[in-house]
Here is the input.
Amino acid sequence: MYLNKALVYGNLTRDPEIKALPSGTQVTSFALATTRTWKNKDGQKQEDTQFHNCVAFGPLAKTIGQYMKKGRGMFVEGRIQTRSWDAPDGQKKYRTEIVVEGFQFGPGGPGGTGGGAPAVGGSSQPEQAEPSAPVLDTIQYPQEDINPDDIPF
Here is the structure.
């Protein structure tokens, strides 16, 4: 059995670019940046930023192109694919990208208001985040004692 799965959370490096295939299917391409930080043996902070090319098709492409903008956080789930083509100068070119199969808006959500929206799969309409419950000043806990012998497992 083989597995080809990519899970990436990062920030968009540019606004998504929307195009259409000759068949009419929408295609959106964008890139996500992820940064790894660590301390070296001298205790100095080090950073390494990686850029991940992504492509989405159909309803996912439409939603991403409509709601996502440069700098926004985004969680992407998909598969890794490398494609090749011959450049006009005769050289063979390669591009490795994540083909998006699902995604989730990062903090700020699709409309720029707080909280992220739920994950989006193949639906054509983004789901609306539920309104948050009011914050309680105090939480009332029951005063009864729990006897471990009363727990059925």
Q: What stands out?
A: Confidence is low (pLDDT under 50) at residues 113-118, 122-131. The radius of gyration is 22 Å. Helices lie at 58-67.
